[in-house]
Specification:
single chain, 3 helices, 75 strands, rod-shaped, mainly beta
């Protein structure tokens, strides 16, 4: 065989093998070897060992050719048994003529030769394509209108297997067609790798019931679809999945520069690791479900960036990050968008899920939003730099796990058309922070809830000038353990259309406005409704510049504490303290409470309400009546130069009390009543040291337009009496007490000390008036001793 002497040793070995196969008389024909690494017509017999391959013969390109591409031209439609490219780089110029391979098209050989097959200009048909397998490498390229239908495996088998598939051109297409449901596989097997590019308007289409695995069983794969009109399609109606990272593998899908993809089901990180990267106006539609992280131990990411880049998710599980023991994260950046029927983070057994929406024009729009659906799961979302999260339905955070959320920066917004729930009555905990000009807006009720499980409490923090919470419904705060809270601070604002409910049935929680915050509500306030006693329910308003206004509906503090302190302002249309339970209103530190209508303490049966006002400059003012004990018990305590004023009448019922403490700066009446003071119950009066009255001196307790009735009981310092006048009530020091040297109405240790200090001299301690303080005066003092 003289032809063998002209071939390299490796090629001769290959040819001998083929010759033996041919001589064996296989029913499937013979393998025909392309003899030269040069161009020529496919149908030229001198180019082939054994003649031109027929419909049952193999067309084998296995001659080592120095890695130089060469062209093979086709003058007519051609059918062969199979095509195998092992160590050459042919370019099939089909010229509009179809190529049919009744078996597999195989491109795989040594890395040194980098075997490649390019199909140019016409359709070709094959049952299967395998590129780079069993430790070999290979590249298959389709271009200039080439098209193909069949099964695909790229980069498969033994470690070192490396395959590359390139589909290029506006009329170029690949259609994975396998009715048996066999998988489309890129990078299949430990140590195997694959890449595929669909570019310049080309398309890749997969039929129903196909499973597409990119990076499986320890392999690695990347599919890139790039350029306007370049498309990836997973036809509807099937039950397959498009999976990135399957069984320990790693898979990546990149959609770039106007490319599009339409998939029935996308699973990024399916028991492996996966990446979805979209940019440059690329679009993706998933019509069944889209998972970023699915499968125990999976780690997955999805990153969308740039104006026009958009993922549209349809279905019950439209977009989910982190489920079934996985970790998933989604980032929407620089004007990109996600439009999803539903959005879930760390649900269905997921370890963790996260969402980042960053940059002006970046939007996630969803019909519903839920996070941390199971115990021990964690979720995180961050809306920053003018990003937007829009929720048409309900927003639920942390059914049983833990969620942290941030809405940070001017223009950053979370809009929820329906109710939005921070935490969960089932035990989930959540912390949501709105800061630096961010906005949280809900068309329904804004809940801060915390259930019975022993986890961290739910909290909503609105922090910083320009930061806002806008609730179209009611603010509802409750927790079955202490710590659930809503905090508005540092100049932030909260607008509540329907008011606020705090600590219903005594559930421990706190609402706090501080450091210049502003809360305005058209609806009213309910604190501790149905609780009876609620020591862990608190509404705190504090610091200069802080104001809270409930301007259109009455406020009811059934049980718990409302405090207004440190120059803060609290305004209400009507205020009821102790509405069926035990409740306190504390005002101190130059704070102001203004009630446009009536202020009532103690109502509805056993209701007991206490008003304590203390500190110079502190003031409680009501535009209508001040009622202490309307249908319950009321207590008013005024001390240290504070004032209470009413433009209406004052009513103090039999079981109620008024307690007044006069300090050094107590010159005006601590209680001012423009109308009539209707008296009953108990009056208690005390004087701070240094503020005691001299004999005959008077202090006005109530300054009123008229006085009706008297106090049933009084508790006064010794030698003091109550004086009732037509326009007020006063306390008078009627006489001094022998031995009371400090004029506090008592004879005690301080008086004894003063007498002993004056011993042997004259002065006030000379009780018998004999000109000297001696034992006789000591005897008189001890005889008048009151024990204080």
């Amino acid at each position: 065989m003289s032809w063998s002497r002209s071939l390299p040793i490796a090629a001769r070995t290959h040819v001998v093998g083929l010759f033996i196969l041919t001589m064996a008389g296989s029913a499937h024909g013979a393998d025909k070897l392309w003899l030269t690494p040069t161009a020529g017509p496919f149908g030229l017999s001198t180019k082939w060992l054994g003649g031109v391959p027929g419909p049952f013969d193999g067309a084998v390109f296995g001659l080592q050719s120095g890695n130089v591409p060469f062209q093979v031209t086709f003058a007519a439609p051609t059918t062969v048994g199979f095509v195998r490219v092992e160590d050459q780089r042919p370019v099939f110029l089909l010229g509009g003529n179809s190529l049919t391979s009744q078996g597999t098209i195989w491109v795989s050989g040594t890395n040194a030769q980098s075997p490649a097959l390019t199909l140019d200009g016409a359709p070709f048909i094959a049952s299967w394509i395998e590129v780079g397998r069993d430790g070999g490498v290979g590249t298959l390229a389709l271009q200039n209108g080439a098209s193909w239908e069949g099964g695909i495996v790229v980069g498969h088998g033994a470690p070192g297997s490396e395959g590359h598939l390139v589909v290029s051109g506006s009329t170029t297409s690949v259609r994975h067609l396998d009715s048996s449901g066999t998988e489309f596989r890129l990078g299949d097997g430990a140590g195997a790798s694959a890449t595929m590019r669909v570019e310049a308007g080309a398309s890749l289409t997969m039929t129903p019931w196909t499973y597409a695995n990119l990076g499986s069983s320890g392999g690695d794969a990347t599919l890139t679809v790039t350029g306007d009109d370049s498309a990836l399609n997973f036809e509807l109606g099937g039950g397959g999945e498009f999976r990135l990272g399957w069984w320990g593998g790693h898979g990546a899908l990149r959609l770039e520069d106007g490319a599009s993809a339409a998939l029935s089901s996308l699973n990024v990180g399916a028991s492996g690791s996966g990446e979805l990267v979209m940019s440059g106006g690329a679009t993706l539609t998933t019509t069944c479900c889209g998972y970023v992280g699915s499968g125990l131990g999976s780690v997955a990411t999805a990153t969308l960036s740039g104006l026009g880049t958009k993922w549209t998710g349809v279905g019950v599980d439209a977009v989910t990050a982190g489920e079934f023991g996985s970790t998933g994260s989604i980032a929407v950046l620089d004007g990109a968008a996600i439009e999803a029927e539903g959005f879930q983070l760390a649900n269905e057994g997921g370890l963790s899920g996260s969402l980042l929406v960053s940059g002006r024009g970046s939007v996630v729009h969803t019909g519903g939003f839920s996070t941390a659906g199971v115990p021990d799961a964690s979720a995180e979302f961050d809306i920053v730099d003018a990003g937007l999260l829009e929720i048409e339905g309900f927003g639920f955070l942390s059914f049983a796990g833990s969620t942290a959320g941030t809405i940070d920066g001017a223009g950053s917004r979370l809009d929820c058309d329906a109710d939005f729930v921070v935490g969960s009555g089932e035990g989930g905990d959540a912390l949501v922070t709105v800061s630096n000009g961010g906005t949280l807006e809900t068309g329904g009720i804004l809940y801060a809830l915390r259930g019975l499980q022993d986890v961290n409490p739910a909290a909503l923090v609105v922090d910083g000038a320009g930061s806002k919470v806008l609730a179209g419904g009611r603010l509802y705060v409750r927790g079955d353990k202490p710590g659930t809270s809503v905090i508005v601070r540092h100049g932030a604002q909260a607008s509540l259309f329907s008011g606020a409910t705090l600590g219903e049935f005594g559930s421990p929680c706190e609402l706090r406005a501080e450091s210049g915050a502003q809360i305005v509500s058209l609806g009213g306030l309910s604190v501790g409704a149905g609780a009876g006693v609620a020591p862990d329910v608190k509404f705190s308003i504090r610091d200069p510049g802080t104001s809270v206004t409930f301007e259109a509906s009455p406020c009811y503090v059934d049980a718990g504490l409302v405090e207004c302190v440190d120059a803060a302002v609290f305004s209400a249309l009507e205020l009821n303290v102790g509405w069926g339970g035990e409740a306190d209103l504390h005002v101190s530190g130059s704070a102001f409470v203004g009630v446009f209508g009536r202020l009532t303490l103690g109502n509805i049966g056993n209701g007991e309400g206490t008003l304590h006002v203390s500190g110079a400059g502190s003031l409680v003012s009501c535009g209508s009546d001040l009622v202490s004990g309307f249908d319950g018990t009321g207590h008013i305590s005024i001390s240290e130069g504070a004032f209470v004023a009413t433009a209406g009448n004052y009513y103090q019922e039999l079981d109620s009390s008024l307690s007044v403490e006069f300090g050094l700066d107590s010159s005006a009446a601590p209680l001012f009543v423009l109308g009539t003071a209707n008296l009953g119950g108990t009056l208690s009066v005390q004087f701070l040291r240094g503020a005691e009255l001299e004999v005959g001196e008077t202090r006005l307790i109530i300054d009123a337009g008229a006085v009706n009735g008297v106090f049933a009981t009084t508790s006064l310092p010794p030698q003091h009496e109550v004086s009732y006048g037509p326009a007020g009530v006063s306390i008078v020091r009627v006489a001094s007490v022998l031995g009371d040297l400090n004029n506090d109405g008592l004879v005690g240790g301080s008086d004894l000390a003063e007498l002993l200090g004056a011993w042997g001299n004259s002065g006030a301690a000379d009780l018998n008036g004999d000109g000297v303080v001696d034992a006789a005066d000591l005897a008189l003092l001890l005889g008048a001793w009151s024990g204080a």
